[in-house]
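Please go through the sequence line and token line underneath and see whether the fold suits the sequence. See right below:
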Amino acid sequence: MTGSVRLADLDPRLAEVTGRTIRLRVLVDHSAQSAGRCPTCLWAVSPTRPACPSHVAALSLLENRPLPSWLAHLAEEVPGIRVRIKPPSDDERRAAEDAAAGLFRAPRRVRPSGARP
């Protein structure tokens, strides 16, 4: 949605290690209507921007869910926040396994001629 959200745009209480009560307070303080503005930070809320970043981050912390992609760049700055990590593909995993140190060189993997790519 937007990549211009900075840590300064979030509620300052989220920049610290917080307990459940403070996260609930942030969630309630930034609970916006379906259209208009967030009552606390005046973040514009519309159908394409459903909630302010403080509300989304507090909800992610409370439910122990990963942040949505439009806020994933804040994961390093907000304590306790998780992001969804894309699992490696089979080819990437095999390449990492083949590159691992061992007693002898790993044989080259060859796909059978009838195998799917």
